Amino acid sequence: MTAPVFVVGSLEGAAPGAVLTLDGPEGRHAVSVRRLQAGEEIVLTDGLGRAAAGVVLRTEGKDTLYVEAADFPVEPEPSPRITVVQALPKGDRGELAVETMTETGVDAIVPWAASRCITQWKGERGTKSLNKWRATAREAGKQSRRLRFPEVGELATTKQVAALLAEADFAAVLHEEGSAPLASAELPASGSIVLVVGPEGGVAPQELETFAAAGAKPYRLGASVLRTSTAGTAAVALLLGRTGRWG
């Protein structure tokens, strides 16, 4: 099994042989929950693509351990970069979507307030929900041994999503009535891919028109209709395979 991953604030200036400290909530999880001991392998990452791999020298109390760094792996910038615009699902399905897309390999997630969304993010509730999505991406990134965690953007309006689509090298809207399958779409070798996943009630006609004007065509995944919380994950897996990132 690969070494567990924990998050540190910064790895600036660290070199092979350096002794790094992991404390706070991450240290508590490593010491008190995972019960790591001296001699065990561990990876510390900043979540931005940089990491320090080494072994635990010793633990201290319930929330501190010291790591001797041996190697500094780097997860390169993804190409093409894959962003999923995820309409807000009901209940905790949003966290499920974020978790599985992160584990699969998505690079960025943008929550979208679509007109047919049942869930609404407003005020304190909206802030709390966004923080949950970001925490989920962080934990799923650690669980899947990623060194570069996906960015979870601010809640976007339809106009803001359209602007994002207009800048992409390939833009698509997942839609059950799409005339072309995503599996046969012509994809860029580099640059950015932006994919829109609608809410339970589907993408409204006006939204489809707005996105089409921005250059995003409707595509279908397959014969079956997936839930909004799983469609993005399936699409990301397809795109990672087709672009060679899963090669």
TrEMBL record:
Q: Which CDD domains would you find in this protein's record? A: RsmE-like (cd18084)
Claim: Secreted is one of the keywords in the record: no
Q: For the Ribosomal RNA small subunit methyltransferase E PUA-like domain, which residue ranges apply?
A: 22-68
Gene Ontology terms for molecular function: rRNA (uridine-N3-)-methyltransferase activity
Q: Which SUPFAM superfamilies match?
A: alpha/beta knot, PUA domain-like
Q: What is its EC number?
A: 2.1.1.193
The UniProt keywords, alphabetically, are: Cytoplasm, Methyltransferase, rRNA processing, S-adenosyl-L-methionine, Transferase
Q: Where in the cell is it found?
A: Cytoplasm
The UniProt entry, under Pfam families, shows: Methyltrans_RNA (PF04452), PUA_4 (PF20260)
Q: Which GO terms describe its biological process?
A: rRNA base methylation
Q: Name one GO cellular component term.
A: cytoplasm
Keyword Methyltransferase in annotation: yes
Task: Show where the Ribosomal RNA small subunit methyltransferase E methyltransferase domain sits.
Answer: 78-239
Q: What does it catalyze?
A: uridine(1498) in 16S rRNA + S-adenosyl-L-methionine = N(3)-methyluridine(1498) in 16S rRNA + S-adenosyl-L-homocysteine + H(+)
InterPro entries the record matches:
Alpha/beta_knot_MTases, PUA-like_sf, RsmE, RsmE_MTase_dom, RsmE_PUA-like, tRNA_m1G_MTases_N
In the record, the note on similarity to other proteins reads: Belongs to the RNA methyltransferase RsmE family.
Annotated NCBIfam families? PRK11713.2-3, RsmE family RNA methyltransferase
Sum up the protein's function in the record's words. Answer: Specifically methylates the N3 position of the uracil ring of uridine 1498 (m3U1498) in 16S rRNA. Acts on the fully assembled 30S ribosomal subunit.
This chain belongs to the protein called Ribosomal RNA small subunit methyltransferase E
Q: Which taxonomic lineage is given here?
A: Bacteria, Bacillati, Actinomycetota, Actinomycetes, Kitasatosporales
